[in-house]
Write a structure and sequence with these properties.
Blueprint: E1 2-4, E2 7-14, E3 18-24, E4 30-37, E5 42-49, E6 52-58, E7 61-68, E8 76-84, E9 86-94, E10 97-111, E11 117-133, E12 141-149, E13 151-153, E14 163-165, E15 170-177, E16 185-194, E17 197-205, E18 215-219, E19 222-227, E20 230-235, E21 241-246
Antiparallel strand pairs: 1-2, 2-3, 3-4, 5-6, 6-7, 7-8, 9-10, 10-11, 11-12, 13-15, 14-15, 15-16, 16-17, 18-19, 19-20, 20-21
């Protein structure tokens, strides 16, 4: 949900009815509605940015819709992008770009005796970070993607778990990595957004497997990783470890 220029905008979803974006005035009277978008799919993420809205639904593929909200009495879908997987969190990173964090999927299908393929579902294959170029709202594109493999990140359902440093173009979060041999471990992933591309600037891990509300933050040229047993500081330029405080 979001308030902009005296209007309240809210996205709602249900499995049977699809997804709606509704605009209301100060008296809570509905002024405009978009929907239903993709009936039988559920909304995964929504981002309001001024006159625009961006929404992701999912069943087998990830439709990203761009919605013009400049006229609160006539909101309109302008564009749509379909790609494998889906984004559970969308974050603006400037220059008409959106960072999407969510799941990567592969389609599951059957093939009949004539070789005709039918999609019957989707298989989750891990965590994915996408960079969407929405500068042309009629033609959104996935400009770049990082596939991080099997694992989970709290930022997928808690935006407070994302460390943002737009000045350096760095966005950090904690990821639980699954490993059948070791039982899994966690790491702090710092994603670099630069020149319309994604890269991993650093991946910091620790022997401590306790991962609950772990966070990244920075002060000046020092990066801090707070986990379940203490604080680790790093040089923010080289990512070399500096000190540890264990409690």
């Amino acid at each position: 949900m979001d308030e902009y220029d005296g209007f309240f905008r809210i996205a709602t979803t249900s499995w049977n009815a699809g997804t709606y974006v509704t605009v209301l005035d100060a008296g809570m009277n509905v002024t405009g509605t978009v929907g239903p978008l993709m009936p039988e799919e559920r909304m995964q993420s929504m981002r309001f940015m001024g006159d625009m809205g961006y929404i992701v639904t999912f069943q087998n593929t990830d439709p990203l819709f761009t919605i013009d909200l400049s006229d609160p009495y006539n909101p309109v879908v302008l564009g749509e992008l379909k790609i494998p997987g889906f984004s559970q969190y969308l974050h603006p990173v400037g220059d008409g770009l959106l960072l999407g964090i969510g799941r990567d999927t592969q389609e599951l299908f059957t093939r009949d005796e004539f070789g005709v393929e039918t999609v019957i579902g989707a298989q989750d294959v891990g965590l994915k970070v996408s960079l969407f170029d929405v500068s042309d709202p009629y033609n959104p594109i996935e400009a770049d993607v990082l596939r991080l493999g099997e694992g989970y990140a709290e930022v997928s359902n808690n935006p407070r778990a994302l460390m943002c440093d737009p000045q350096r173009g760095l966005y950090g979060f904690i990821m639980d990595r699954w490993n059948s041999a070791s039982g899994g471990y966690w790491s702090a992933v710092l994603v670099q957004v630069k020149n319309g591309r994604l890269s991993i600037a650093a991946e910091l891990s620790d022997d401590n497997k306790y991962n609950y509300n772990n966070r990244l933050c920075f002060i000046g040229d020092t990066l801090y990783l707070i986990d379940g047993i203490g604080v680790i500081s790093y040089d923010y330029n080289t990512f070399d470890e500096l000190e540890r405080l264990v409690w």
